[in-house]
Each structure stands twice: as C-alpha cells, then as structure tokens.
Amino acid sequence: MEAREMVEKDITQLDRTLYPTEGLREIARGKCYTVYDDASREQAIVMVELHPKKSTPEITTIKLKRPRTKLGWKLIEYIIEGLRHCRTLIPFVLENESATKFMEYLYRSRSRSIESVKTYAYAIKAFCNYVGKGPDEILGECLNPEGLQDEKKVLELSKKLDDYLGELDASDYAPISLRMRQGYISWQT
Questions:
Q1: Tally of domains within the chain
Q2: Distance CA 145, CA 143 (A)
Q3: Residue 101's Cα: distance from chain center in Å?
Q4: Ramachandran region of residue 185, left (φ > 0), alpha (ψ -120 to 50) or beta?
Q5: DSSP 3-state assignment of 186?
Q6: pTM value surpassing 0.85
Q7: Mean pLDDT, rounded, for 26-50
Q8: N or C: lower Cβ tally within 10 Å for the chain?
C-alpha cells in the first residue's frame, strides 16, 4: 500500500475517532477532507488534514451552520479544493461568513477558478492579520447600527488599506503586485 493511501485510510479512521460520525451523512470526500451533514444539530462538519507531509496526520474539525441548498454544500467543496495547497486557510474562510460569501461570488459570478480561491483568501488573510481583526469584524465595523454602510467608517478602512499597501511597498513588492493585492482586498471590503 502506498504512503498516500495509508494516510487517506488513516483520515477515515481519524474521522471516526475525532468526531463521532455515526448518524451523519457523508456529503463529500476528497484526498484531504470529508464533509458530513449533521442534520439533527443543523451543522455541516468538515474534517480536513492540515499538514499532509507530517508522519502523523493533523486533522481539524470545523463546525458550520448547515447549508440549506445544494449550492451551499458545493461551495464548501469549492473552498476546500481551492485551498488544498494552503489548508490552514480553510478554517479562516469557512468560519467567516463574509469570506464565504465572497467565495460564493467567485463561484457564481466569476470564472469558478480554483486558483482564485487561494489568491483571494491569502490576500484577505494577510490584510486581516495586518489589521488584527477577522473579515466579519472588519466589515461589521463599516456598518451603522441599522446595518447600513457608514461612509466615515468605510473611509477609515480605506485608510487602513492604504497604510497596509504602503507597508508592502516598503517591503519591495512590485507595483503590479501592490495593485493586484489592492484589487483582491477591495473586492472583499
């Protein structure tokens, strides 16, 4: 048996030990993940092997609000497949509603490119790290108590984005890279 097959077999066994899967319906399975429907708890359970090169698989379990549509389930798979080479971003995207909504936009209105998932997720995560807040929190701060866009707060966020791009520029990023990064983040905000 090849090493990869052994790891995949181990993931299946770990699925059952890390999170009881009895009574759950398997929705999807890939080389590094399994998605379950936990209808009784109204949850989707996503199990992902984070570091495939390690001798012992490191599996993370992500609990999400259960999708009500086929598109919702498909979107989970799209995100995981898009981030299969940078798996530590999977929880970041799936656990932030705004990031997931943006990935839905990419899936439905853009090219459905798997590479776009990684590119945008990485850019958004880097900006969030710079600001010290998650995407849901950043976008939530741009709304007034009625849930409408607050122009003053949007301007403040634009200033933070400009400061971030200035830091990248000082780190010798190429001008085209800066413009691309600005575009990736601006689509989200």
A1: 2
A2: 7
A3: 10
A4: alpha
A5: helix
A6: no
A7: 93
A8: N
